[in-house]
């Protein structure tokens, strides 16, 4: 029971068939006495009575009646498998809240929490998994547990996970259910309960909690999964005609070629039960929607394709929040739920249209904007910024699609008076406004999100304008080619796709503009290019790859490594395992490259941006006799929290089970500690100098330097860098003792601790504090007192992606080495220039001034030589035309450089009588080609433009260029084609001008 206006039963032992006989009786008995001996205790029904009409009630209400309002405490857990009763009591006190997206999410989590599941937070959209680009499923954060790589912390969990999928982005807005951003509600069992409980609770949630009519739910099971079929049919009571057996393609989940897998069972909602049972197809989107998927992870798929039972059977489920909201809110598609519609409505207001009254074309564009704006806001909040690679490209592409849709809808400006302003930040404000229950961090990051969106939109508008210019050039080239070959002008599908994909230029506008110019568009070729990209996208983003690796067998036999390195750099340890080329061995001898797994270690394993320690493992028979020495060059974490010491056996033989002395390189550890603490100080200084909104986007803590990536929209000024350095060195000089403490993560965040980008945290976290300066969640190693850092120097600051800057710096010994090295360079420079250090700048400026003067003199001489040479070829000009005498000169000027070629063309066009057209080419060396076109006013008036004319000629030389109607320059990389290009230019110029001058 439940749903729109359905009752929130309070007693936990009333079965699903229980109904209220009367609102006035003091004690209500269950009608199903033969199956249920429970009763609802007196006093649970309180509040006023409300008359509800038939039309306002959901499924199953037969008549208008007086119903009591009920106080929401615990909900009824149904033990029945029978359909819902037809007579229900309706709680009208909070009907809307019961089916809002936020309420559905909350009710799902509370439902499973009351059944022993721990509510865990959504993980970031940036997964801690190199096999996937973005978080595409609710199970992704539990992948290591399903693989057996790390132990479970809880036997049962439930989450509301943010997800991104872009493999079918073209369907967004065009179907009722496709999205790029969506929330997946899930319940998970890690070797605890299995099919029976998963199925029972899924049914209970759907029927008792959300109030879906039992006769509208259809079930699919894997064709060979008799166990699931029996549970659904015999125990739950779903009629056989509403249970479909389906093949492996639909109902058998695999993680990859090998690895955990198992059958699925899916729940579908039927929007049109009146169509009956004959010839039903659960894939019919007009009738059914799959809203809940249960994966029974019970097998391991081996290399030969055979299946073996897993030692630990798991449950992985997913319920689509948007889909359930659509069902309960009774709207025709997911977009018109309260999760997305407010965003669409904001876009509609900016476009000055009414969504309810709009045609399907306009609605589709508004839906795309609504969907994509959700995706980009949450992606940027999670640290992904627009770029041309990886995750950044996903953000950029979605932003550009949203901007395109807005432009097609006629949105101009920000809707607040600035016609040149950006509009998507205005829509993003609505996304942020309704984000609180999904991700509370979005509000805190709103300024950065809006600024990033504004910059990207304005940049894209400029790109669109470039696309318009490129389209104009492409259409001119197509027309020129068609005339030369006497064919119909066609814009290739490849060119149309280039405009669409690279420049974000809408293909429908390309078609429209082309038709106006008499050019058709090869749409079949465009579709081929689009399909190629779609296949590549699906291959890259549509699967979560899980594999049981060789190392997993090792992981089953050993425990997590105990890390001792906060307190000591030397300790005894037992060799738990040895791996050579990823495979376990019993012993290794001198010269072998080996991975050593110890039961305990002082070595820090790479994490949190800090690289792994280096050092030595000693195996000694006695204090004076060492029988093995292993040089450790790196340490990494694998299979959860197992430290893998990567090294080379320098002496002797090492065996599993032996006790070794593990010794960390003290000097290198100190360098890492210094740089890690300096990184914390750098982040604090950045926030103080350029603003609290800046946040970390990546880091590296190495022995020789530190690297810190942060979100900021422009280069830092010299005075800002000086101020940052000054602050850090001041904090170093304060000689402040650091504090470290382990505490619950909620307490740490409440205290103001900053989380490091890309890191995963457990229930308990380590907090590193420089009192009064910095407080961060961090598992890295740090100095005890800031004075150990000694000094700090920024060595570079640069942009690495749109909206992301990078600072590299040195501290401690690396700082001293850097300063000494720069001093040596300066001494050498002083010696070469024969000046004092303070005079170097003045001397260099003077030398540069002298060099510029000499270069200008040389350029002037070259230009004069080119003009002189040009004067000797004026006699080669041809005169064409009858009504108008037009002079045409097309010549190669050997190895003249581009600037001199320009001077020659300017001389010739001023010397030859108007109208005149000059095309010059040269090959100045290094495989380069220079081209110049100069047209007099009379030629331009005839309709020829130098820039458009020169483009196709430059293409023949492997290059391109452009310019004004009267003057253009171009370059190329194929000097061997220069003669042919100039000959084509001469023929085309003579042919075109002859027609216009006749």
From TrEMBL:
Residues 99-821 form the Alanyl-transfer RNA synthetases family profile domain. Its cofactor is Zn(2+). Residues 837-864 form a coiled coil. Pfam families: DHHA1, tRNA-synt_2c, tRNA_SAD. CDD domains: AlaRS_core. Keywords: Aminoacyl-tRNA synthetase, ATP-binding, Chloroplast, Coiled coil, Ligase, Metal-binding, Mitochondrion, Nucleotide-binding, Plastid, Protein biosynthesis, RNA-binding, Transit peptide, tRNA-binding, Zinc. It is found in: Plastid, Chloroplast; Mitochondrion. Binds 1 zinc ion per subunit. The keyword Chloroplast applies. It catalyses: tRNA(Ala) + L-alanine + ATP = L-alanyl-tRNA(Ala) + AMP + diphosphate. Gene3D superfamilies: 2.40.30.130, 3.10.310.40, 3.30.54.20, 6.10.250.550, Bira Bifunctional Protein, Domain 2, Threonyl-trna Synthetase, Chain A, domain 2. Its EC number is 6.1.1.7. One of its GO terms (cellular component) is chloroplast. It is an enzyme of class 6 (ligase). Its main location: plastid. Zn(2+) binds at residues 676, 680, 778, 782. GO terms for molecular function: alanine-tRNA ligase activity; aminoacyl-tRNA deacylase activity; ATP binding; tRNA binding; zinc ion binding. InterPro entries: aa-tRNA-synth_II/BPL/LPL (IPR045864), Ala-tRNA-lgiase_IIc (IPR002318), Ala-tRNA-ligase_IIc_anticod-bd (IPR018162), Ala-tRNA-synth_IIc_core (IPR018165), Ala-tRNA-synth_IIc_N (IPR018164), Ala-tRNA_ligase (IPR050058), Ala_tRNA_ligase_euk/bac (IPR023033), Ala_tRNA_synth_plant (IPR027522). GO terms for biological process: alanyl-tRNA aminoacylation. Monomer. Catalyzes the attachment of alanine to tRNA(Ala) in a two-step reaction: alanine is first activated by ATP to form Ala-AMP and then transferred to the acceptor end of tRNA(Ala). Also edits incorrectly charged tRNA(Ala) via its editing domain. Belongs to the class-II aminoacyl-tRNA synthetase family. Alax-L subfamily. Consists of three domains; the N-terminal catalytic domain, the editing domain and the C-terminal C-Ala domain. The editing domain removes incorrectly charged amino acids, while the C-Ala domain, along with tRNA(Ala), serves as a bridge to cooperatively bring together the editing and aminoacylation centers thus stimulating deacylation of misacylated tRNAs. This is Probable alanine--tRNA ligase, chloroplastic. It comes from Kalanchoe fedtschenkoi.
